[in-house]
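Q: Give me a protein?
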Amino acid sequence: MNTANLQLEGLYLAIAALNNALVEKGVMSREEVATAMRRAEQTALGDYRNDELSGAERDAVAFAPRLLNLANNSAADGQTPSFSELAKLVGQTKPRHPDRM
C-alpha cells in the first residue's frame, strides 16, 4: 500500500478525534460538525473542475468529508469505528448519480 494513503488514513482519524473533542468540550455540537462536513462535501463537489472529473474522481474529492461525517455520527452513538469500517460505510452510503457514471 502507498505510504501516503496510510498517512491520510491517520490524518482522517486524527481529525475525527479532534471533531469529537470539540463536541465533548461543548465548543461545537454534533449537528454543527455534521453541517460543516456537509458544507465541505458540497464545496468539494461544486468545484469548477468537477465538469472535468469522472464520477469516481468526484467521489474521491468528497471522501474525506463523508468519512468524517460518518465518524461524527458513530461517535454520537458511542462507537469508534476503524478507518476500514468507516471507508466501507462511505462506499455503502454515498449518493448515486447515474447521470455521472
About this structure: The chain has four helices and no strands. The helical segments are 3-24, 30-45, 55-76, 83-93. Residues 3-94 form one domain. The chain has one domain: 3-94.
